[in-house]
Amino acid sequence: MTLLRAVIxxxxxxxxxxxxxxxxxxxxxxxxxxxxxxDVRQNLADAQARENVFAYKERxxxxxxxxxxxxxxxxARVYDVVPSVDGTVVHRRLVERDxxxxxxxxxxxxxxxxxxxxxxxxxxxxxxxxxxxxxxxREMLDGRPMIVVRFSPRPSAKPKTRExxxxxxxxxxxxxxxxxxxxxxxxxxxxxxxxxGLGFVARLGEGTTxxxxxxPVGEFWMPTSMRLTGTGRAMVFRKLxxxxxxxxxxxxxxxxx
Length: 257
What we know:
By secondary structure, the protein is of the alpha+beta class. The chain has helices at about 1-15, 35-50, 120-130, 160-170, and strands spanning about 55-60, 75-85, 90-95, 100, 105-110, 130-140, 145-155, 170-175, 180-190, 195, 200-205, 210-215, 220-235, 240-250. The longest helix is centred in the N-terminal third of the chain and has 17 residues, at about 35-50.
């Protein structure tokens, strides 16, 4: 989940640090770019700042692989997750496995790596410089008007940071809810392979797809599902077929309020 959220955040940072001109379409003018993107940036920042306000349940499905190996958490597990006040740590407890309740499971303490590490200006510029953006169109999604933005690797870019290199590996689309000015859906596809642990731990292959959906939770929008599909390799020689899903639900205040 950390990897997937990192991918989406990198793309979101890149998109909403850029302001692109918006033009009319079919006689229905698109919104002015500067206030539109300013609102979306602020909404994303507000949601991220309040991640530690909510406890929630997290369902992880199995990361399927071929017979050479397995990476993942099991077929299907549901955790109850409660963040610390400062958001640097979450406490999670297994409450369900393969549809069956789990009783008296121990509470795990999981640190959120890099939570307190500010993004440097150089990193932001590296991410922004890695991608090209274009306002593509307005379309309806489940009856709601969206502004659709396309992104792709900038051919001349030579990113230096980990975040910039990750961003440069993807192309895709982002659906922004026009009235709420919230990112509602992201679909990204890797156009080159991604290595982790210098390629010795894992490599995600070209064509790997990542998708994310967000929905309103009270006055804020939070992620509700994420999916990773594709192929890759573990420990250099083990070929993997990937299909991993995460769902977040039952958002609530940690005290139950």
